[in-house]
């Protein structure tokens, strides 16, 4: 690796850098062409820009409208809070006035029939009769009898005067209550009129603000349209100039003229410039086809060798399997013969044992035991 790096020339390094740069440019070009997300070739960029600009204008208008509505809602909420606070204060003051009126003019002891339900009536009560002229002496008390009512006229006149005073007092109280009610209604009406004037003023301000916003948006849209039209004219003019320059360069250049000399590289006759190369010559094509044929023949030869090798291995595997099968069969035959011989031996031993058993039974039946053992030992010998 060190010798290879030592033999590298500056020209080779420049060539490798140029090749890497061309590869990077080619990858960038493919990304611009084949990536559907970032590709702009074949698309209407002007229409896209116009859509984006219209969307931004629409969003700005919508945002201004929402802000206006939000300000209006905040203002209405503030007015509602003020009105509710005033209404609560009015209700509170009215309830306070009613309570004060009841405490001052409608106390329990000021009622006409309070003496009938007074809890301290017994403590305040006087004796049944203090004198002969006591007005509390009724008929049921049996303190004064018929013909003894000498103060009838004064008493009746006093009662009439008292009734008249009570009636006048009720009328005055009723007039005062009505006057207070009218005053409260006047204050409430005045407050409502002030609220209406404030709401009308706020509505006028809101209308003026909305008109100003609409005017500003209209002017902004108009300026944006004018600017867009001027930019489109400039872009179209620049595009026409660029197209004319590109067409002129292509017609005068070596790309469309297909000059084969333009692909010649400065690094040697065996190298070409990839972005200017128009194809190989017939001699180069014939050489490539010849090399391809040689590669095909070499591949066929290798395949044939591999096939022969596979066939040899298959034949060996079959032969080994056959040998193993024959060996297994031979072992099975040997085991079968051994089993057969063992069965014959066992059968003969069984027969001999059976005959010996029968003989022993006969000997036990016919001869004494000693003779039996003697004969048995002699036979065994």
Tell me, rounded to a whole number, the average pLDDT.
82
- What would you report as the Rg, rounded to the nearest angstrom? 67 Å
Major beta sheet summary: none
Helicity, as a percent range: over 70%
- Strand share of the residues? under 5%
End-to-end Cα distance, whole Å, is 98 Å
GO biological process, one term: flagellated sperm motility
Subcellular location: Cytoplasm, Cytoskeleton, Flagellum axoneme
Coiled coil: 222-250
Keywords: Cell projection, Cilium, Coiled coil, Cytoplasm, Cytoskeleton, Flagellum
What can you see in these coordinates?
The protein has 381 residues and is an all-alpha fold. The chain contains eight helices and no strands. It has helices at residues 2-7, 10-34, 45-105, 121-124, 152-252, 254-257, 282-366, 369-380. Helix 3 packs antiparallel against helix 5 (152-252). It is flat, with a radius of gyration of 67 Å. The two termini are 98 Å apart. Mean pLDDT is 82; it is low at 1-6. Residues 222-250 form a coiled coil.
Topology:
Layout: H1 2-7, H2 10-34, H3 45-105, H4 121-124, H5 152-252, H6 254-257, H7 282-366, H8 369-380
Helix pairs in contact: 3-5
Give a nutshell description of this structure.
It is found in: Cytoplasm, Cytoskeleton, Flagellum axoneme. The chain is an all-alpha fold. The protein has helices at residues 2-7, 10-34, 45-105, 121-124, 152-252, 254-257, 282-366, 369-380.
């Amino acid at each position: 690796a060190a010798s290879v790096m030592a033999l590298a020339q500056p020209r080779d390094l420049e060539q490798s850098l140029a090749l890497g740069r061309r590869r990077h440019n080619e990858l960038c070009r493919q990304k611009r062409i084949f990536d559907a997300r970032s590709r702009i070739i074949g698309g209407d960029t002007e229409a896209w820009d116009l859509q984006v600009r219209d969307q931004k204008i629409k969003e700005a208008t919508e945002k201004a409208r929402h802000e206006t509505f939000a300000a209006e809602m905040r203002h209405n909420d503030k007015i509602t809070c003020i009105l509710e606070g005033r209404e609560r204060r009015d209700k509170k003051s009215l309830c306070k006035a009613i309570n004060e009126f009841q405490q001052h003019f409608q106390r329990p002891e000021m009622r006409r029939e309070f003496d009938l339900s007074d809890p301290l009536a017994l403590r305040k009560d006087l004796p049944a009769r203090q004198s002969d002229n006591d007005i509390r002496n009724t008929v049921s008390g049996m303190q004064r009898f018929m013909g003894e009512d000498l103060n009838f006229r004064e008493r009746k006149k006093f009662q009439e005067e008292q009734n008249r005073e009570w009636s006048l007092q009720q009328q005055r109280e009723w007039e005062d209550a009505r006057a207070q009610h009218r005053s409260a209604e006047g204050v409430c009406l005045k407050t409502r009129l002030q609220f209406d004037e404030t709401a009308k003023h706020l509505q006028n301000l809101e209308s003026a603000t909305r008109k100003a916003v609409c005017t500003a948006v209209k002017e902004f849209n108009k300026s944006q349209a004018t600017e867009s039209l001027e930019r489109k004219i400039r872009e179209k003019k620049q595009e026409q100039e660029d197209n004319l320059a590109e067409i002129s360069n292509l017609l005068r250049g070596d790309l469309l003229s297909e000059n084969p000399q333009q692909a010649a590289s400065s690094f040697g006759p065996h190298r070409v410039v990839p972005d200017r190369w128009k194809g190989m010559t017939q001699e180069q094509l014939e050489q490539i086809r010849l090399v391809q044929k040689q590669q095909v023949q070499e591949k066929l030869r290798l395949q044939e060798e591999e096939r022969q090798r596979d066939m040899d291995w298959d034949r060996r595997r079959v032969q080994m399997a056959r040998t193993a099968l024959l060996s297994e069969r031979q072992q099975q035959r040997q085991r079968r013969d051994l089993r057969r011989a063992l069965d014959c031996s066992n059968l003969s031993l069984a027969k001999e044992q059976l005959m010996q058993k029968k003989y022993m039974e006969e000997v036990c039946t016919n001869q004494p035991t000693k003779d039996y053992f003697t004969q048995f030992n002699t036979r065994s010998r």
